Amino acid sequence: MKPSLIALFSLFAFIASSAKAFVIDAEGEPVVNGGTYYILPFINVLGGGLTLAKTGNETCPLSVKPYPSLPIHLEHGLPWKIASPLRIRYLPTNVWVDFFTVDETIPSCVPFPSRWTIVEEEDGVKSVKVSGHGYENTITGVFRIKKYTKIGYTYKIVFCPTDSDSCKDIGLSSRGLVLTDDVPLGVIFVKVESSEVSKQVINNVLEA
After folding, report:
1. Partners of residue 155 on adjacent β-strands
2. Structural domain tally of the chain?
3. Range of the domain at 124
4. Does the pTM exceed 0.85?
């Protein structure tokens, strides 16, 4: 076989393998770097999309958790800008990403811009909150999106501390999203520009 053909086939193979590694949204399209998405639990009995809520002694909603909605009335939660510092058009799995608030949608008491951060609370639980309140007990590191199950376009979010060689799954507790050694929270990504978020969107994802 000619070297030029070998190179061409190698290029096609690389493109195909790279495409499989993209984070895919609920409509089957790659997640855009810097795009705005709703993030919903793929098991909708866990609630609606991720939003901000007050937990503990908070007087302002700073904790990230699913919107408390029923499966028959699914709420999409807040939109989140998902961005990587890498100069890429689409987001592959397992690269550094940040989750930012979108100005028009957050309560006035929440600083803008804010991004997800990990805060170690007094009882040792490491919770997902939004930055900007001058926490003294934040944990430095990066978030990554990884494929979770073979069911549809489902993913999990992990946090990789800078002082550790391993990453921790983001799971769900009564106070919201937390680092966990137990079951991670499986999520899907729905473009804000999409039509109304409903149970049918979830069903389409699970059937993919």
Report:
1. 147, 187
2. 1
3. 3-207
4. no
CA distances from 188 to 39, 116, 127, 146 (A): 6, 17, 20, 11
CATH of the domain at 96: 2.80.10.50
Which of 33-36's residues contact partners 24+ apart within 8 Å by CB, and which partners?
A: 33/82, 33/83, 33/84, 33/86, 33/88, 33/89, 33/90, 33/91, 34/81, 34/82, 34/83, 35/81, 35/82, 35/191, 36/79, 36/80, 36/81, 36/82, 36/102, 36/191, 36/192
CA distance 152 to 154: 6
C-beta of residue 39 within 8 angstroms of C-beta of residue 77: yes
Interior angle at CA 82, CA 130 and CA 180, nearest 5: 55
Dihedral sign of CA atoms 8, 23, 170, 133 in order: positive
pLDDT in tens, 12-52: 343 344 445 899 999 899 999 999 999 999 876 567 899 99
